[in-house]
Amino acid sequence: MSSKFEINNIVEGTVTDIKPFGAFIALDEKTKGLVHISQISHNFINDINEHISVGDKVKVKIIGIDESSKKISLSIKATTPNNSNYKNRDTSKNRDVSKHKSQPKFKQPSSLEDKLKDWLKESDERQSVLNKRNKRR
């Protein structure tokens, strides 16, 4: 492992491969690291390909080095402010309901009592479906 990489260093790398669990970043000709999907953005990521692409140049912070397995753990979100995405490719996919014309299908419960009532109602409905299935057998 190259001695020029140390934990907490911020370096630039190139995305070489993307998997559902994260992205591999080339730090130099011989050294690669992994940015786990949880380290791409401060927000939840459903599809990593919406945030990063092969060939992208990215700033990453080295958050871990395992000398025995020669693995480097990286973070993109550690190099960005908490209130922004690393890359927002399609703003129409944002989850902000207020920007959509239609209203949400379900009213958000405002109290614990409302939440419990909703939970009990859903539970009763599920139990009813299960009971019907069992009667058919």
From TrEMBL:
**Example GO biological process:** translation
Residue numbers spanned by region Disordered: 79-118
Q: Name one GO molecular function term.
A: structural constituent of ribosome
Which residues lie in Basic and acidic residues bias regions?
A: 87-99
Q: Which Pfam families match?
A: S1
- All copies of the S1 motif domain together span 8-77
* GO CC annotation: cytoplasm
List the protein's name. General stress protein 13
Q: Which organism is it from?
A: Tepidibacter formicigenes DSM 15518
Q: What is the lineage of its organism?
A: Bacteria, Bacillati, Bacillota, Clostridia, Peptostreptococcales
